[in-house]
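> Could you send the Penicillin-binding protein activator prediction when you get a chance?

Sure thing. Input:
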Amino acid sequence: MDLVERVSEPEPAELLQQAENQSSEQAAVTRLEAADILARRGQSQQALDVVGKLDAERLAPEARIRWALLLSELGFDHDDPWSVIRAAQVLDDDLPFSRDQRLTLRYRQGLALGMVGESRAASESLLNVQAATDSTELNDAIWKQLIRLGRPALDELGRAPDELTAGWLSLVELQRRSGSDIDRLFRQFEQWRERNSGHPAARRPPSDLMALRELRGREVRHIAIFLPESGPLENVARQIREGIQARHMQAVNDGETTPRLTFLDTSQNDLESLYAEATMIGAQVVIGPLDKEQVTKLESRDDVPLPTLALNYGNGQRNNARNLYQYGLSAEDEARQVARRAYADGHRRSAVLIPNNEWGTRVGDAFRQVWLEQGGEIGSTIRYNPQAPVASAVEPLLNVRGERAHLDGIDMLFLLALPSYARQVPPTLDYYYAGDLPIYATSHLFEGRPRPRDDHDLNDVLFVDIPWLIPDAAVGGEEALPFLSSYRGLREGNDPSLLKLAAMGVDAYELGRRLPQFQIIPGSELFGATGTLRAASDGRIHRQLPWARFIDGIPQPPLRDGLLLDGLGEGSMDGQAN
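Output:
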């Protein structure tokens, strides 16, 4: 009997220890081997940490390809699109890719770009792969990105397009012209299909498009809107109503099939009477109420008389009422998004600076929950008095001793503050030798219009805001904004805080007339004036907002590790400019 000596696999820990004493080139090879072993053993998080930190520039060409494929795969496994985007940058280098390797990386790049909200770049990557493979498996991913694009981005894709891209663009245009008229949409789709019989989308239509068939006969033709006409919420309601009406008139002018609108005064009637009247006049959907206590009462019920889009969030941990959706400009959503982005950027130990009031507690708790769930740590939390000097909060926050901060591993700051307070934070950090500490913030630190002289102290601060207030950072310019005509009409004479409420009205109108779609098709989303809107399983609408960074005191598209937020460095799409 022959005995075959089995070569044992080296232990990753030993390899990583060896790398500490090797030349930079050999250390990169050794760390890649350790990451590969960890991944094969199912220790994918450790593998991602190792492969993400090694110096890939030191690897030989074949090894760099291995590194990129491993990093991109692990990035997807752990919902880390930035790792995928970073890995895909090697596509610009002169490396000996096989056809399958190049297509795999390009495909992963496209999906990752979509995950970070860069739909045009994502579309280009995925169309690139489909042109090479003719695969209909890509149809759903391509459609998801294309329908998010504004007119300028579609026009850019349509400049001298190939037959594949031209077919996709004509299908998007068809869908948009149809508005909410489902019968018209599918009559025109069948005609498109006959003209483009060989196109991947004709052979296998996108599932989200075909799911709209279920909405036939369920178009919303009458909406009742519950808003107060007097009382403490009157001014807020007026701005939301202005947004609803502006978007409605624009849809009428564009030839879309639009619902009838009936406004009912919540300051004069209770909810039961309002629902009875809405039912009597034939309304199919309700938008409102706005009052938080009224929404709280609705969410504790088993159901509501008519499908309803409330314009606030209740106080409960969960919405329990069937057919009740809740939408608002939630600061908690922004805090959760900050926590996810900061963790994806590689930060692990956060300081938290929030106002000492109920608002600060709610938003701080939202950040803390998501941050801890991901594995982050809270190194320090200070609830500040907005009237007190900023230094009185920063000193204990960063353990200042002898006019020098002692960070104790803190690698980022979550900031919730209004502009006048926020502008003082970076200079105070700088004074205490902590000026390099990354700051992530909610929209509240930005007044909504460029004020470079006032905001220059906020340089390098990352924050989120609605597309309508940061068009250059959010979508590459005003022309690409969602509901552009409504935006141009509403911004005149409105200060930013009022424009934000009007934008909420625009999106409320769109959500209201699409409520049957959100009910029937899970995962539906609206690329709206206040962000990308999706419904959670309990009907609460969550917003995903674009990111901006202050540069020269003006919100601009942020950079991350040398990559534009759109995921593209120079020439990373085979020489196509974004």
